[in-house]
Amino acid sequence: MPIAAVAKESEVDVLIIGAGPAGVMCANALAMAGVNVRIIDQRPAKVAAGQADGIQPRTIEVLQSYGLAERLLREGNQMHMAAFYNPSPSGGIERTSRAPDVTAPSARYPFEVTLHQGAIEAIFLDSMSAHGVIVERPIVPTYIELSQSEEELKDPNAHPVILKHLDPSEREGDSEIVKAKFVVGADGAHSWVRKSLGISMDGEQTDYIWGVVDMVPDTDFPDIRCKCAVHSNNGSCMIIPREGDLVRLYIQLSDRDVVDPATGRVDKSKMGPEKLLAVAQKSFKPFEISTSGQIDWWTLYIIGQRVASKFSVRERVFIAGDACHTHSPKAGQGMNASMNDTHNLAWKLTHVLRGWSDLSLLQTYEFERRKYAQDLIDFDKKFSKLFSGKPRTQDNQDGVSHEEFLGAFQTFGLFTSGIGVHYEPSAITHNQHQSCASTLIVGERMVPHVFVRAADARPYDIQDLLPSDTRFKILVFVGDVANTTQAERVLRLAEEMGGQESFYRKFGHGNPSKVFDILSIASAKKQDVNYTDLPPLFRQHWSKVLLDDTDMYSRVGGGGYARYGIDQQHGAIVVVRPDGYVGIVAPFDHLKDVNTYFDSFMAQS
Amino acid sequence: MPIAAVAKESEVDVLIIGAGPAGVMCANALAMAGVNVRIIDQRPAKVAAGQADGIQPRTIEVLQSYGLAERLLREGNQMHMAAFYNPSPSGGIERTSRAPDVTAPSARYPFEVTLHQGAIEAIFLDSMSAHGVIVERPIVPTYIELSQSEEELKDPNAHPVILKHLDPSEREGDSEIVKAKFVVGADGAHSWVRKSLGISMDGEQTDYIWGVVDMVPDTDFPDIRCKCAVHSNNGSCMIIPREGDLVRLYIQLSDRDVVDPATGRVDKSKMGPEKLLAVAQKSFKPFEISTSGQIDWWTLYIIGQRVASKFSVRERVFIAGDACHTHSPKAGQGMNASMNDTHNLAWKLTHVLRGWSDLSLLQTYEFERRKYAQDLIDFDKKFSKLFSGKPRTQDNQDGVSHEEFLGAFQTFGLFTSGIGVHYEPSAITHNQHQSCASTLIVGERMVPHVFVRAADARPYDIQDLLPSDTRFKILVFVGDVANTTQAERVLRLAEEMGGQESFYRKFGHGNPSKVFDILSIASAKKQDVNYTDLPPLFRQHWSKVLLDDTDMYSRVGGGGYARYGIDQQHGAIVVVRPDGYVGIVAPFDHLKDVNTYFDSFMAQS
């Protein structure tokens, strides 16, 4: 490739290819962190309708950590209730039961939000733009090359990725060479980045063919505003209510509906939105469903269940989102898995770029997210099979029973909600002291709970004090500071943590409160404690001291130590990663293990 | 006055004079309702710092009803806890107790929000601007005249108010004559409108002189982020924590600090922010308080306690806010009373302008708000006296005891929070059937409570379904619709309410859902009820049916019928006014009294 012929050349720290959910999550996180980042997309405009639309409970927590959940909750629909319909003895379908849509007891937002992908992406685009980053489009990448120099690859300040791209509206000569420290390929299921780097997708395509229609329905179906799994003897449907009065239907199709017998391939021209709706109408009987409006969006798909063999090349080029995993949309995981991929990656890139962490930190991205993607495919296989299977009836005793389906729906709830995502031990998750905070599982997200601020008794969910601001949060559960022995232990801990040998100074790069945010949480009551009672390191601002107590009106709060499995007398140290996952928990007398934790991936200035 | 010499002339439905809290609340409410409104202010720019800053619990509910509370809560500080300091036996002060800042158990937001007046006004200005209304400034009104023609005054379509004003940046010849249907004088304590119309202020000035400073303090005082009443033997102070790290101090002054002995008047030049702080420092001992930053704002004031003798002239010109009541700022009532004045007035003007109600409806503004203002002054007299009094000590047995002060603080809580505001019976508050919803007091604001939507089990605070959208809300508590006798009663009620004789048709102006919003609330459980079970009038959209049940996770909701004192079997009808106050409650078999209610002030098309 004659790249020397091209005039324009530039350098950037991170180049993101693709402005879908994974790309915009990444770009926004990096923009908020002040990283030198660009994002390009080959589509001329953002998505207007259709596509993915479900935001899971954990993803809402993640959006909230970037200050973006408020708008999502204002614009989106909430699914709280699920309903299950099965063949009725008198023909047609009937409701078998209703159940909570989310079965993850610790979810802060115990529901799913549905909103079309364009509106969700707009939340990120507006936030990025407030931080000075906009998507450059339409820009088509045409060439990528990774340096072969080991020296360059090991130098965090080098720009070992060369990428050529072009603006299709310009002449070829106006294309650009970008030298990047890091490239993130968030360019979808047909990822150009993945193919260019020769990364294979492992897995296979299923036989399940589904259609999707978005519309405002006219119906007498009483659960049209719930998530519904409809299993009839005339096919299966899934209902996903959306923003406003919109409803999405997933409709199971048979080969004869859509497959061209000559080629054996899906022929979209054999199907249309009216035909799709006609298929759905058969499974809804005796209920009527139609629309007096337009079909907002429709598509067909065959479920593929694949995971990329690698998520990164030399920790310089990464792939994320649909580029590294494809699966069925019906469990509403796609957009969530994608966003959480780059939520996991962005802080790691930032730390490396700032010189706070070694390049090796970036290995944990593939380690954590590929394992998750594999779990997701395993789940999807089981769920798709159950969902696409025929219902068990008098005449079909081999079919899927309602109990079996509901059981799976609820068992999988912790996984599908995103709440149960668990990262295995690595450089950034050390679980040797798990017992001192027995229910704050290392490798899982910090459990939300309401505490009150000592200075003003204002209640806060602790998650709101753990924003995605790239800092590690050091939560010092100081125990019962009214007890003088404990008060002395707290003083000693503050001295030790503030000392030269401690991670706080060692990796503080001269201004430790930029790298670490210390919060202290006492088990004592608001009537008795002054925030001024704590040592200065543990109250660097009046807002940094919390109490495990109710608010003034006993409406919220209290019981946090018990919920977290932390001893109310002696407390514990809890380190929360910048992405909100617990990194290590330790008793006061094992601060050295917290030092070791940071030693294992952080860099000194 | 030679008005004939002026060239520019215009007509407007409502002209608001003054863009303080009362003015912008009024302008925004009218703008949202699509009323032809203008608002002028003589100040060249909006307030940047200082001034009033406390938003009471009821006012937060009101802002929420206009969709404005989210931003207020994001930007403002919250006061949850109050602390009381009194003379210590060892000299100086000590904390006597902490208590909830708000003592109004039904408050939806059980705290006060503090934020500087400019930021609060900006919330309204941005909302108004989104509805196409901006403040015209600087514009100085110079002449006002009300028509003497009874015919004109009684014609709702006439423009009987003539007002001349001018843009001081233009030549006199460029001033304008505005003919208005209605004028609202929200032009402050020295109201030009009030004076021009010769309305007197009844009441007197007190002897209490106070200073105010806003600053970011350096202090070891442990309750600096709480509302504090500090009574020392060296004077009294009140602490109001503000947004960010700002704190406001109210400091009691003695005559010798500020009064010019020659004239007997307050001489602001004798005092300055440093001197004020020095007075405060004496009462804080043994705690230290100072600032390393700037004094953000300061002022001095003498409490005047006065109410205007009239709030309106012929229901064509109204005065609102500080123009009709002045009192001490320390109970944080000023801005709240002002905003609630025009919140009360705006929907009434709208209804009259739309031809939905008779002009007589406007009489209820003075009736309701003047009574409230008088109650406010009565409260203020008691509270100021207690606050400004010397504390009771060994040496001063006549002083105010802590118990006396705390008791008053809590007794007055219902009033100061705004939650207890009670409008007496009038054309728009009929209380003859109070017993059928015994705790939804007619003339008080609708009590917040969480219900779940039948269609999707999403929980909603009922207040969020009662927005300030100018419609009367008809809440049909349909009782236990699973019971067939009750289901029949509900059907009959729907027939009767939908009939030609009913208020719904009679005053519906051809499109009753524009005037009335019907919500139905069943006492049955979410597992059992379909929203489709109700008669169409009571479920005009799937979102209009609620259940008195918990959400799917039993975190919120349930017990609403009991809380409202409504029979779970038989239900009741509750009419909520457009401003969120209960207008009438009635049993199903007294729909005729609901008809009579609307007959007493509404107009047929």
From TrEMBL, chains A, B:
Pfam families: FAD_binding_3, Phe_hydrox_dim. Residues 11-379 form the FAD-binding domain. InterPro entries: FAD-bd, FAD/NAD-bd_sf, Phe_hydrox_C_dim_dom, PHOX_C_sf, RIFMO-like, Thioredoxin-like_sf. Gene3D superfamilies: 3.40.30.20, D-Amino Acid Oxidase, subunit A, domain 2, FAD/NAD(P)-binding domain. CDD domains: PHOX_C. It comes from the Eukaryota. The keyword Flavoprotein applies. GO terms for molecular function: FAD binding; oxidoreductase activity, acting on paired donors, with incorporation or reduction of molecular oxygen, NAD(P)H as one donor, and incorporation of one atom of oxygen. Residues 421-604 form the Phenol hydroxylase-like C-terminal dimerisation domain. Keywords: FAD, Flavoprotein, Oxidoreductase. Belongs to the PheA/TfdB FAD monooxygenase family. This is Phenol 2-monooxygenase. It comes from Trametes coccinea (strain BRFM310) (Pycnoporus coccineus).
